[in-house]
Amino acid sequence: MARYDFASDNAAPAAPEAMAALVAANSGFTPGYGSDPISARGADAVRKLLDADAEVRFVASGTAANSLALAALCRPFEAVLAHEHAHVCTDETGAPGFFGQGMGLVGLTGASGRIDLAALAGPLGERDVAHRQSPAALSLTNATEYGTVYSHEALAALIAPAKAKGLGVHLDGARLANAAAAGFDLTRIKHLAVDILVVGGTKAGMSPSEAVVIFDRKLAHRFDARLKQAGQLPSKGRFYAAPFIGMLEGDAFVERAAHANAMARRLAGLMPFPLRHPVEANAVFVEMDEATLRRLHASGWFVYRFLDGSVRFMCSWATTPDAVDELGAALAALT
After folding, report:
1. What's the rounded mean pLDDT across residues 91-117?
2. CA distances (Å), origin 290, targets 6, 294, 298, 310
3. What is the chain's Cα-based Rg?
4. How far apart (Å, rounded) are the C-alpha atoms in residues 102 and 76?
5. What does the alpha-carbon distance between residue 87 and residue 172 come to, in Å, rounded to a whole number?
6. I want to staple 315 with a disulfide (CB 3.0 to 4.6 A). Which of 121, 264, 311, 331 is the partner?
7. H-helix or E-strand containing 108?
8. CA-based end-to-end distance of the chain
């Protein structure tokens, strides 16, 4: 039987703190559609995490969160600038364009998932013409698809020219907990002129749930109607909010991510294959030929070949040192 311990942090179970909060929320009767006290408490926990006054909504998936956020920033004849390997460009089956009614995506280059400032300058410098979708938003990801972490200063350097051109800014934080555990200060996001932030819950150890944080309150106008139309305004919304209470009211959100990051560093230390990207969060990417990858799969460990051709190993809150050591031994045997 294949083991999926390192295939994705989505493969991990929910953390006990999240499950305990879900059980606690499953008591009594409440209003529906996010108007309940549990949803309010979850939103307060997110605001406290960020030390920011913002509108907060909970949805079922990162795809929904990102797509609806970008649709709020762009009109159908406009485009989003993002890293060419960002999740919105490669793994959401056109959902941003679907919810944005034709909104386009423009992929930008940059090492290890971080947009290069020079790559951003090109599209920002193009004049508007009627024959292409001019950019209206910049989408950034922290931690990136390659497990690297933007510093506050690096994000500010990208956001400033985008804002100068009038673009909105979306920050995909599917692995924001891992970025925080790597030293990224979440309380400084409010100073970055980010319009909409997604705080990832699923990859952080929650049951399926993501928080959409709307810093620009003008964008909150009729946002609930946008959620309802997209099937993302559930009647029992408290069950989306509850995991955030469990993970954020204590220290589990960052502490569990810190463990995942530590397991990635442990695995990198055992890795007999060359590393493709810096190990800064909870991912390890390596050079591995196809025959070796097939042998790894045959030995019982399943992992993916990623967008740049490297092989990806993801650690989660539930990854154990013993599992890392087992995998390390299996990898050594392949060499």
Report:
1. 97
2. 18, 6, 12, 10
3. 20
4. 5
5. 9
6. 264
7. strand 104-108
8. 22
pLDDT in tens, 265-301: 999 999 999 999 999 999 999 999 999 999 999 999 9
On average, the pLDDT of the chain sits at: 97
Look up the pTM and report it.
0.97
Domains of the chain (ranges; CATH) run: 16-248 (3.40.640.10), 252-334 (3.90.1150.10)
Within 10 A of 45 (CB to CB), how many other CB atoms are there? 22
Query: Distance (Å, rounded) from C-alpha 324 to C-alpha 302?
Result: 14
pLDDT at 189: 98
Tokens for 106, please give them: 């423009």
The answer on pLDDT for 1 being more than 90 is no
What's the mean pLDDT in 94-112?
A: 97
Question: Which residue in 65, 149, 158 sits closest to 113, CA to CA?
Answer: 149
CB 63 within 8 A of CB 266: no
pLDDT above 90: residue 327: yes
For the chain, the 3-state helix, strand and coil shares in percent, each to the nearest 5, are 45, 15, 40
Token pair for residue 330?
């299996």
CA–CA–CA angle 37, 213, 18 (5° rounding): 55
Decide if 17 contacts 184 (C-beta within 8 A): no
DSSP 268-292: HHH--S-BSS---SSEEEE---HHH
Q: What is residue 274's predicted lDDT score, i.e. its pLDDT?
A: 98
CB neighbours of residue 317 within 10 Å: 29
Average pLDDT over residues 15-41: 97
**What backbone torsions phi and psi does residue 171 show, to the nearest 5 degrees?**
-120, 115
